[in-house]
TrEMBL record:
PANTHER family: CAFFEOYL-COA O-METHYLTRANSFERASE 3-RELATED, O-METHYLTRANSFERASE-RELATED. Keywords: Methyltransferase, S-adenosyl-L-methionine, Transferase. It comes from Streptomyces sparsogenes DSM 40356. It comes from the Bacteria. This is Caffeoyl-CoA O-methyltransferase. GO terms for molecular function: O-methyltransferase activity; S-adenosylmethionine-dependent methyltransferase activity. GO terms for biological process: methylation. Signal peptide: none annotated.
Length: 219
């Protein structure tokens, strides 16, 4: 078996890494703090702090103009990506919660990017299926209910532009993907990872970022 060359991430090393990333801007910082203060029981759903600058970097790197986000919560990842879009870029944000996304709406307005974000409150599968069938999405961020990841993938892949990037979060599902007895979301993510590896339409790499992050590029 190949040996890991990864350095274990201590709290000190994690803080060091954050300290060498682009800092969150005041609106992003406030959104992270407000989410933890007002929604302490579910705040863990927010994308990790380092994923904000990473997603922004990927938007700029790919020159994405049309983004789809599946799973918005209080809007941190959508904010980070929308800020990196050109002024005429668009992000369709999919979620089922008016309550949680209301925090996002407020932050997006404060940051001056509300006009770039089209929030669709509905089951994300319905929203994706209603989109044009031809390739037009430059970047998609997958971060919603794990049981539907394969279905989301199947709706997204044919709609991805050539070279378009799918970013899938939580592909380790807290380590349960290596548990032979994994059930529920852990089992669903295992099935998703197998599905992605077997899909010749996409070139995919799995990274040890936060809870595991897959980057997949449309061939
Ligand atoms: C992990 S959170 C997203 C975190 C977000 N990307 C962020 O950075 O804060 C998952 C979100 O998926 C949403 N969700 C769950 N099931 C859904 C569905 N069937 N359709 C759309 N959204 C769904 C939840 O309401 C929740 O806000």
């Amino acid at each position: 078996m190949a040996e890991s060359k990864s350095t274990p991430i201590t709290d000190e090393l994690y803080a060091y890494m954050l300290g060498h990333n682009p800092p969150l801007d005041p609106v992003q910082r406030e959104l992270v703090e407000v989410t933890h203060a007002r929604l302490p029981e579910v705040a863990g759903m927010q994308s990790a702090e380092e994923q904000g600058p990473l997603l922004a970097f990927l938007v700029r790197l790919t020159g994405a103009r049309h983004i789809v986000e599946v799973g918005t919560f209080t809007g941190f990842s959508a904010l980070s990506m929308a800020q990196a879009l050109p002024a005429d870029g668009k992000l369709i944000a999919c979620d089922v919660s008016e309550e949680w996304t209301a925090y996002g709406r407020e932050a997006w307005a404060k940051a001056g990017v509300a006009d770039r974000i089209d929030l669709r409150i509905a089951p994300a599968l319905d929203t994706l299926r209603a989109m044009p069938a031809e390739p037009h999405i430059d970047l998609a961020y997958l971060d919603a209910d794990k049981g539907n990841y394969v279905a989301y993938w199947e709706e997204l892949v044919p709609r991805m532009s050539p070279g378009g990037l799918i970013v899938a979060d939580n592909v380790f599902f807290h380590g349960s993907v290596v548990d032979p007895g994994a059930t529920g979301s852990g089992a669903a993510i295992k099935a998703f990872n197998e599905h992605v590896s077997a899909d010749d339409r996409m070139e995919a790499v799995m990274l040890t970022v936060a809870d595991g992050l897959t980057l997949a590029r449309r061939r």
